[in-house]
Amino acid sequence: MRNMDRVIVGSLLVLGLGFASSAQACTTDGWNGGKNGIPANGDTGSPLTVSRYSEFCALAITDTSWVQSNLASDKQYIGRFYVYPDLTGSGTVDLLVAFSDEGGASPLFKISYNGSQFVFDTDGAGGGTDNADAESGWNLIEFEYDADSGNFNYWVNETWGFASETYVTGPTSNITFPSSTVKVESVRLGAPNGMDSFAGTISYDAFEAHRTTPVGALRAGDANSDDAINILDLGKVRLELLNPGIEASLAEGTPDCNNDGAVNILDVGCVRLILLNPQPDV
User: Fold this and answer.
1) What domains does the chain contain, in order, with CATH numbers?
2) End-to-end CA distance of the chain
3) What are the DSSP E strand ranges found in the chain?
4) Scanning 52, 55, 166, 269, which has its CA 20 to 30 A from the CA of 80?
């Protein structure tokens, strides 16, 4: 597996960004292409006031702000992130935009949110648009751009098979475009074109990108990040609940078991339910 850009996203309000392989505190410097409207370093001692899905980092966007990565530079680009749009109002806000240049002048494709659906637009690559329904709370989005085949596949809240390392039912949908040699050279995540008429917060977490292999989903409820759901995860969620805002007590895995945008007593019940009704790795 060739990792292109493995990044855990940090908060605009509290934290920053950091590479998943790093033990350092989150910093926006993890996005090598720069940032707009986001502090270079966060205050990791502050109580968490933003939603997070995994680890202890969550990017919270409330206006025209973004982070950019210039680590792509390939004709095949596979990305995965979690997003929680907690918004009122109307319009369309771009969540992720990929460019064929590092200056952000030539968009290839973008992923947007219109209040009820995610919109996938490949017009920049000569394709079209498609959409998929959003759910309340955290949403899992994965996408694959392949210039050689002229295909753009995307998955929205699909079931990931941990044993097979594939999505059980395949892509949610596919957009075709003329095959070409155009590479993805940079990616912006956040609200690079503004919030339109929306007010509120868009939270992101667990961005990761590959060249050739699927990224896949994180295991909800795996609060200690050991690739299993067991009694240890129950203890991790409880520890975080008993010590709100204390970084040392934060679960290092995915404590938001029910994907509702908050780590609370409902997640304890969610983990217990999994323990009582273990499921195969599909």
Assistant:
1) 3-210 (2.60.120.560), 231-276 (no CATH)
2) 22
3) 3-8, 18-19, 34-36, 59-61, 66-69, 76-90, 93-99, 107-113, 117-121, 129-133, 139-146, 151-156, 160-161, 166-167, 173-176, 186-190, 197-210
4) 269
d(CA 256, CA 265): 10
> pLDDT tens for residues 146-155?
999 999 999 9
DSSP secondary structure, 252-274, as one string:
SS---TT-SSS-SHHHHHHHHHH
Helix (H, G, I), strand (E, B) or coil at 138: coil
Task: Say what the pTM is.
Answer: 0.88
d(CA 187, CA 102): 8
DSSP reduced 3-state for 95:
strand
Question: What is the predicted pLDDT for the residue at 59?
Answer: 83
Residues 213 and 19: their CA atoms lie apart, in Å, by 19
